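Notebook p. 47: complex prediction with zinc ion.
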Amino acid sequence: MSWELAAYDVQPGSLWGADGEFIASRQLDNLASCHAALSALSVADAAPATCVAALFDHEEVGSESAAGAGGSFITDVLARIGFAAGLDDEDRRRALARSYFISADMAHAYHPNFPAAYEPDHKVKVNGGPVIKTNANQRYATGAETAARFMAACEAAGVPCQQYAHRGNLGCGSTIGPIVAARLGIPTVDVGSPMWAMHSARESAGALDPAYMAAALAAVFAG
Ligand SMILES: [Zn+2]
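Predicted complex, structure tokens below:
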């Protein structure tokens, strides 16, 4: 009676580079972060707190939909988890304030063909580990405290991490981070694995970064 159409590259992902150090694949943005989150959740058996991995549709078109991060789904599910655990409304709000939210999307790695697109001191590298993204206009939800907590998790996991701010005189994209942070009131950090050719049919990234991100997220879940 009706239909939706999603066109995508059907070639499987592949390794490339002199030593196979790069990945080429469709939809690294943002299935790579979804994969890292689910990998981390799958090893979070003995976690000291309730761990949630939430994957949303419609991030690329603003997130304001029933299935997007701007919808009521995550708020409702967290409330229902709280009520099922015997928390009253006051308990639930306290739990949210004590929580920590990682918004994991991808990050623009430095590309030497386009030096004018980057802040001179913010050239993040593929295979350099997770990128902490900061923006004074809150296009990213990162603050000093939430960034430090993520840096500590990377250190605990033995993973390098990098810092990124978008070039000051260019418009900065956003993520679900500020949207979810504003609705739930949870301290939030925006992070992502570095990549090239974001939003092209076939994107590129570093072969080391998926495992780095999964290990960093697992370290957060492990407390
Ligand atoms: Zn994107």
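Notes: The helical segments are 28-42, 73-84, 89-97, 144-157, 176-184, 209-221. The chain has a mean pLDDT of 95.
Next step: compare against the earlier run before touching the bench.
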